[in-house]
Design brief:
Length: 751
């Protein structure tokens, strides 16, 4: 397990290192010290050009926005294609040296694998693909082919389109208040990134009032740190360094537990041959000769175990590569490095596992050993107790930690988000609001559907915008999350309105210039009560909207972050997703009805749906991974502990078989002898728990601090772990001691 963990962690720390200029590439973000403290990497689309024209220390600049889009090539549709829209600087930064620039609107690059899927063996350059994204399907001309992005890259794509397309189609909507683009820069050789960050900060101070008011700081995130950093809006899932630390810690604990267990087994093996070693000493053997024999045998077993373990690790890694497409995992780590590491670990484990048996052999008293007095022949009851206590402490620590992780994930998945996600289904619609409204206006007649509406983004994709009450005073602007939603959105989502009315139907409203605030947003804008906000005007950039309601707070992101101020607008042209609530158990019938209408309204466009509850749960995949791994590790440790306790207690009771016989002759019952043996091991278990509990509490509490919404430390986990370890200990010792204690008094005395 340790070898597999090392290979995996090495891969996670190797993201984006394939780029020769990775050390000069940074992604710009801002950090809001007044709220979550997370870096927000989505910024205004006007920032990139301003940096390009005014910051001399920057060699290349690119904005980037991602989408998952349908692509049509002739009559074939390709689903969920990863499309990134970038400036020409992106190509020069990530595909140096580049032969193709994306300067022209409606031009695209595709990857080698994408070219094979779209066009087979024919040359794709000059051919047309249709991308269903934005307000309409757009035709793009393929101007080049680039290499596929490596697995160890923080952004993956099938198609790269020109940012000039966005500037031509919606350039008039770009503003300093609307933030939805990632911005990358490559600093010039010799330039200082701190100076570049200061210049970016000056640009934001000059153009974005929210930057000053909300005490934001510019974050120049190194390219190779992106995959290892949690941000407020990441392109692809990142991995927490805390998770990698937990994996390493668990692997080390499993290894330590195995070392304890292996030491126990070696000690038992040596004690069983103590007379043989004593005879060798009588026949002239030196203590060093006996020690060398013992060490050689342990070394041979250790190296064989390492070879078998290394082979199993390679098979496991190859299987993982095949299942996930990570075909560069072992190649990246290096097979030679893997072999050297395996040998090193084998030697280290041999040395550690040899300490207890070698001390035993060195301290043997030959006359006592020949008489069979093994307890006086260096059998070292203290050493055995240390080994058992250490093993039980490690097992208890992992078991308590596992229960803490499971409890926290359960709280996050089942917590009250302010929204009812059960029986809620989402369907992405190409062509934005035009097609979504066409489907809703058609009407869907089925008892399985409780309600239908639309929105623009929802879970997983967010934009932010500056909102203010005074049209001319930009210093009042407050940064908020925003998206667009359709009629009766809050009713369908089961989000209570504190005051005001839900978004009205399209045909009954005077205009689309209406919005709903959540209570955090209303308070941030300075209204004392939600009632005060309803009917008032607020400004988003140059646009004015009227507040028609204030809702209770809700969390559409995840319970990793606190509730953010949010404004929901009602522009139907921007709504590209249908939301449908079904009766319990009626999802299939509802989807069939919606798909029938879909085929009539949007013939030739594939129909896809997803559960928002499932989407919500997927946000906690990292916690699920930790819980799964920790459960496996805890199970392995429990098994190893059982084997270790049984082996040591079995041998220890055989050493004391005469003692048990004498005690029974003196009147002790079998039950009383059982009780004394069990209590000895229960005492060791208690010591192990006392060592594990403070460490488990400290590490668990430290881990829980990473969450905005955290469960109170579940002290019940300590009780469950204590009961589990106690049952394990009692059963193991009872099984091991049964033979010795059940032996008749006569046989015990003569043993």
């Amino acid at each position: 397990m340790l070898l597999i963990t090392i290979v995996y962690v090495d891969g996670q720390y190797s993201y984006d290192e394939h780029l020769s200029d990775a050390s000069r590439i940074y992604r710009i973000g801002v950090q809001d010290s007044s709220r979550t403290g997370l870096v927000t990497p989505v910024l205004s689309g006007l920032l990139g050009p301003e940096i390009r024209s005014t910051v001399s220390g920057v060699e290349e600049v690119s904005r980037l926005v991602t989408s998952s889009s349908r692509v049509r090539v002739r009559d074939d549709f390709f689903q969920a294609q990863r499309v990134v829209t970038v400036d020409p600087g992106f190509v020069r930064m990530f595909f140096s040296p580049s032969k193709v620039d994306l300067n022209t609107p409606f031009t695209a690059l595709i990857t080698l694998s994408t070219a094979a899927r779209y066009f087979g063996d024919s040359d794709p350059v000059g051919k047309t693909i249709t991308i269903f994204a934005g307000s309409r399907p757009d035709d793009y001309t393929v101007v080049g082919v680039v290499d596929d992005s490596p697995y160890y890259s923080h952004v993956h794509f099938d198609v790269i389109t020109s940012f000039a397309t966005i500037e031509q189609v919606m350039g008039h909507t770009l503003s300093w208040q609307a933030s939805m683009f990632y911005t990358y820069v490559m600093v010039r050789p010799g330039a200082h990134v701190v100076d570049v960050g200061d210049r970016v900060r000056s640009i934001l101070l000059l153009n974005d009032p929210a930057f000053t008011r909300e005490r934001m700081q510019v974050d120049m995130m190194p390219l190779r740190s992106i995959h290892l950093t949690e941000t407020a809006a990441e392109i692809e899932p990142s991995v927490s360094p805390a998770l990698l630390t937990i994996l390493i810690a668990l692997s080390v604990l499993v290894t330590l537990s195995s070392i304890f267990n292996y030491s126990n087994m070696n000690t038992v093996s040596v004690m069983g041959r103590i007379k043989e070693f004593s005879i060798r000493r009588i026949l002239g053997g030196l203590p060093s000769d006996v020690t060398l024999v013992v060490f050689s045998e342990i070394l041979a077993r250790s190296l064989l175990s390492v070879v078998l373990g290394g082979f199993a690790a390679v098979l496991a890694i190859r299987g993982y590569e095949s299942a996930t497409g990570m075909h560069s995992t072992m190649a990246h780590f290096g097979i030679d490095t893997f072999v050297y590491l395996s040998v090193f670990l084998g030697l280290l484990i041999t040395v550690l596992c040899s300490i207890a048996p070698l001390v035993l052999v060195a301290s043997v008293n030959v006359p006592d050993a020949l008489k069979g007095h093994l307890s006086r022949a260096g059998s070292s009851r203290f050493s055995r107790r240390v080994l058992i206590v250490g093993q039980l402490a490690i097992t208890s620590f992992v078991l308590i930690g596992t229960l803490v992780v499971i409890e926290q994930r359960s709280r996050m998945v089942n917590s009250d988000t302010g929204i009812e996600l059960e029986n809620l289904i989402a369907v992405d619609v190409p062509g934005a609001g035009k097609n979504a409204r066409k489907i809703l206006d058609t009407g869907i007649d089925t008892a399985s559907i409780l309600g239908l509406t639309t929105d623009s983004r929802g879970t997983g994709f967010w934009a932010s915008i500056g909102v203010r009450r005074d049209e001319s005073d930009y210093s009042q602007s407050r940064t908020m999350n925003y998206f667009d939603a359709g009629p009766e959105y809050f009713k369908l989502m089961h989000i209570p309105l504190i005051f005001g009315e839900d978004i009205p139907p399209y045909e009954s409203r005077e205009s689309d210039d209406i919005a709903v605030l959540n209570e955090t947003a209303a308070a941030l804008l300075g209204w004392e009560t939600p009632q005060d906000a309803v009917g008032e005007r607020v400004f988003l950039g140059r646009e004015r909207v009227r507040v028609i309601a204030v809702s209770k707070d809700y969390n559409l992101k995840s319970m990793h972050s606190v509730v953010s101020p949010t404004i929901v607008r009602a522009r139907w042209t921007e709504q590209r997703r249908i939301l449908m609530r079904t009766v319990p158990g009626g999802a299939d019938r509802a989807l069939d009805a919606l798909e029938t209408v879909w085929k009539q309204a949007l013939p030739g466009i594939p129909f896809e749906s997803r559960s928002l509850k499932t989407e919500w749960i997927r946000q906690y995949d990292e916690e699920a991974q930790i819980a799964f791994i920790a459960t496996i590790v805890a199970s392995v440790l429990l098994l190893v502990s059982i084997v270790g306790i049984i082996s040591l207690s079995l041998f220890a009771t055989q050493l004391r078989i005469r003692e048990y016989g004498i005690r029974r002759i003196l009147g002790a019952t079998k039950l009383r002898v059982y009780w004394s043996v069990i209590m000895e091991y229960v005492t060791m278990m208690a010591v192990g728990l006392l060592l594990a509990i403070p460490a488990a509490y400290y590490s668990g509490d430290l881990w829980l601090q990473n969450y905005a919404y955290q469960s109170a430390y579940p002290f019940s986990a300590v009780a469950y772990a204590a009961v589990g370890i106690a049952i394990l200990t009692v059963l193991s010792v009872s099984f091991a001691a049964h033979g010795a204690i059940s032996t008749s008094e006569v046989d015990s005395i003569s043993a």
